[in-house]
Amino acid sequence: MATVELRFSAQPEHVRTARLVAAAVARRAGVDEAVLDEVRLAVGEACSRAVGLHRSHGITAPVSVALTEEEKAFSIEVGDSVPDPGADPAESGAPGASGSGPARPGSEADGEGEDEMGLAVISGLVDDVEVRSGAGGGVIRMSWPTADAAVRS
To answer: What predicted TM-score, i.e. pTM, was given to this entire model?
Structure first.
């Protein structure tokens, strides 16, 4: 299992770089060419969401992206450092599971609509998506089958 990790400051101009890296790693991992646009769009939405959350909460920590090539799938995790308002403050840095609904139920009203819209777009692009949040921040995990997995099925 090979993993590429990317961390960038929460600036909108870095989202494009994350999309380009994700597409290149997905291609190398064996994701079908027809799906690469979906990978780019989904990563762009997830990273834009994380950047927006960081900026609206005044967080200077970097946004993290982990791109993992597994045996039959390629997965991407986009992490932010914005704690879930309902999370237990004693919880460690690892985000806890919260299902796939809005990850920030107590977020400010202005950003909440954009947050939900971004999650809806991601859910429309990716069949296998999981949204988690906790005291240490949130994670959107997305995965796609590789060409090898489609041939073996």
So the answer is: 0.81
